[in-house]
Design a protein that fits this description.
Elements lengths: L2 E7 L5 E9 L8 E4 L6 H14 L4 E5 L16 H4 L5 H6 L4 H17 L5 H10 L1 E5 L9 E2 L11 H22 L10 H15 L6 H9 L5 E2 L2 E2 H4 L2 H16 L10 E2 L2 H5 E2 L2 E8 L5 H20 L4 E10 L15 H10 L3 E9 L9
Helix pairs in contact: 6-7, 6-12, 8-10, 12-13
């Protein structure tokens, strides 16, 4: 089923009869980018792509840094004024000289006539909603469905001997993001903190054991592996410095505001994409988070997507679509934020597994040319 994106328009913005724009979903296994200035319709086009994917039975993992992709869930099959009433900006309606109820009726009619102009109706909305599930996840908050990202240290269901590179990339991304939450800009090669935590996770995962943050902090104080490289642990990272580092992470764990990071559904990519036999639109809402927190979440989610992807058979057909509504700051050309490595890995490797990446940004130079 081709993705129907719209029709061609002429210089006056009028539709050109018989010139529809469609795309083979298989094209997206080689990925895509939507580029345009503010207000040009990037998010609108992204919503269309997501709706077309869902209508085709393809699940979507949607990273939403700005909070615009939640509009995907504003789908009202009855197109009734009372459906729109809770979403009416009452002050804006008053400025127009409308009551909120009048504005709701006008909005419902606008949607109805707009859909009819594209030969669509409420029954098409109902069909899409019957076919799919849609959920807004809010890591670090219970405003939507909480998502436990911090607790995502369960060992992936991959064989270490054959997938060591994937596992190490996952660990590096997680550790970089975690240390970013406590303002440690850690070089994976030079930072004692990064090297220690990464080795602790490697030690557990190679042994087939899961971890949580509390256990990890305890292991920083008393590491199970007594050597790092050729040096014993106390020479490489003295006990006094390890204690200070552990206290720093423990402060994060003990913070009441951080409790929301460890509740909610586990970060399970299979469950995010498929539930009760239906393809899902999993919107990961990040607008309430700081830049460091967004980096951590995006790194953790895409790293888990890679490990899930590696457990799947190869496919030349589009199996799932990963969309990021605003990628500025995540894949810059001259820096290495934590999320950059898993995003580049997906762009290089996801095609073989039928995973498409669709990114959106305002400027081509926001993206690393590689």
């Amino acid at each position: 089923m081709a993705f129907y994106l719209g029709d061609a328009v002429d210089g006056e913005g009028q539709r050109v009869a018989g010139e529809s724009i469609a795309q083979d979903p298989g094209d997206l296994t080689t990925h895509g980018v939507i580029i345009g200035m503010t207000g040009s319709g990037k998010t609108g086009l992204g919503v269309i792509y997501m709706e077309e994917a869902l209508r085709s039975g393809i699940p979507a993992l949607i990273i939403d840094p700005k909070g615009d992709m939640t509009n995907l869930l504003l789908t009202f099959p009855d197109l009734a004024p009372e459906d729109f009433r809770p979403w009416i900006d009452e002050s804006a309606a008053e400025r127009k000289g409308h009551t909120p109820d009048e504005e709701a009726r006008a909005t419902a009619e606008l949607w109805r006539s707009g859909l009819e102009s594209w030969d669509l109706a409420g029954v098409d909305i109902a069909a899409m909603r019957d076919l799919t599930g849609m959920t807004i996840y809010t890591p670090g908050s219970d405003a939507g469905v909480p998502l436990d990202v911090v607790g995502s240290l369960a060992a992936p269901d991959l064989a270490w001997d054959s997938e060591a590179e994937t596992m190490r990339d996952t660990i590096q991304g997680y550790v970089s993001g975690l240390l970013g939450l406590v303002d440690i800009d850690a070089d994976p090669i030079a930072s004692s903190e990064h090297i220690l935590v990464a080795n602790l996770i490697v030690h557990s995962w190679r042994g087939g054991s899961d971890l949580d943050l509390a256990t990890l902090i305890g292991q920083i104080m008393t590491p199970p592996n007594r050597k790092l490289g050729v040096f014993d642990i106390d020479t490489f990272f003295p006990a006094k410095e390890r204690k200070a580092f552990a206290m720093r992470l423990n402060g994060l764990l003990a913070s009441p505001s951080f409790a929301a990071w460890m509740i909610g559904e586990p970060l399970d990519i299979e469950e995010l994409l498929w539930r009760d036999g239906k393809p899902q639109a999993a919107v990961i809402y990040l607008a309430h988070l700081s830049d460091a927190e967004r980096q951590f979440i995006v790194t953790a989610i895409f790293s888990r997507l890679i490990t899930w992807m590696r457990s799947q058979p190869g496919s030349s057909e589009l199996r799932a679509l990963a969309y990021m509504d605003e990628v500025f700051g995540f894949v810059p050309p001259t820096a290495e934020p934590p999320a950059k490595r898993p995003i580049l890995t997906l762009l290089k490797q996801a095609r073989a597994f039928g995973i498409g990446m669709l990114l959106s940004t305002q400027n081509p130079v926001d993206l690393d040319y590689k």
